[in-house]
């Protein structure tokens, strides 16, 4: 189980800013078990957002939001509502949030922090996607994690060492920040690069720091 905590409502509202129409995505897997993104939490979030003057265009509960193909399939039934929304608020782990970001060209807001994987690393197995830092920064990076995807774990933009979109660590490794910049460009939010992300506090993570386990690639 991937252990998550819902972000404070004040923080979520700061993400939404002047956006009026929001589509909520929940997860029937780990997030439901943690009571951070299941049906009850999604409905509760809808009520809180509407009390703040927001319009919730719809709710989609994915069986396992970390499964990119399943998420894409579930979204087909909600396509018109998603298109009509200013953004999506995702109540699940960092892997699920990134899966959602990979299938829609919309602004995606994280509604939870992932504090520990606590078990298997989700259903998106082709690489490291979340390092359970406990302070999810996907809001600032277009739904692509700089902690997991950047070899140097830089939070404020590329290091300048990449060549042709590849990391200087390995020519086979995509530059995480190039992926982030491309994504922000597609959704019209390149201005997020000017945001100052606070220094990472690993004390809020149940892991105590970045994991060092190797990634097994098939």
What does this structure look like?
There is one protein chain. By secondary structure, the chain is α/β, with parallel strands linked by helices. It has a domain at 3-141 and 198-204: Rossmann fold. Helix content is 29%, strand content 15%. It has 8 helices and 6 strands. Strand 4 (87-91), helix 6 (94-103) and strand 5 form a beta-alpha-beta unit. The longest helix is centred in the N-terminal third of the chain and has 13 residues, at 39-51. Residues 209-218 have low confidence and may be disordered.
CATH topology of the domain at 3-141 and 198-204: Rossmann fold
CA radius of gyration is: 16 Å
Strand order of the largest sheet: 3-2-4-5
Assembly state: single chain
């Amino acid at each position: 189980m991937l252990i998550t905590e819902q972000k404070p409502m004040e923080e979520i509202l700061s993400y939404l800013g002047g956006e009026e129409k929001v589509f909520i995505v929940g997860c029937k897997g780990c997030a439901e078990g943690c009571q951070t993104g299941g049906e009850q939490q999604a409905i509760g979030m809808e009520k809180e957002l509407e009390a703040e003057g927001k319009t919730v265009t719809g709710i989609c509960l994915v069986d396992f939001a970390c499964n990119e193909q399943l998420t894409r399939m579930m979204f087909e039934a909600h396509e018109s509502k998603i298109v009509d929304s200013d953004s999506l608020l995702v109540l699940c782990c960092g892997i699920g949030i990134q899966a959602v970001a990979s299938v829609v060209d919309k602004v995606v807001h994280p509604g939870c922090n992932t504090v520990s994987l606590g078990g298997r690393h989700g259903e998106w197995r082709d690489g490291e996607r979340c390092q359970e830092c406990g302070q999810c920064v996907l809001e600032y990076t277009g739904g692509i994690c700089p902690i997991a995807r950047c070899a140097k774990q830089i939070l404020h933009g590329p290091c300048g060492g990449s060549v042709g979109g590849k990391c200087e660590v390995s020519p086979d490794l995509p530059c995480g920040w190039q992926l982030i910049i491309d994504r922000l460009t597609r959704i019209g939010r390149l201005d997020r690069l000017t945001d100052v992300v606070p220094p990472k506090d690993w004390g809020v993570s149940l892991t105590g720091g970045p994991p060092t386990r190797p990634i097994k690639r098939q």
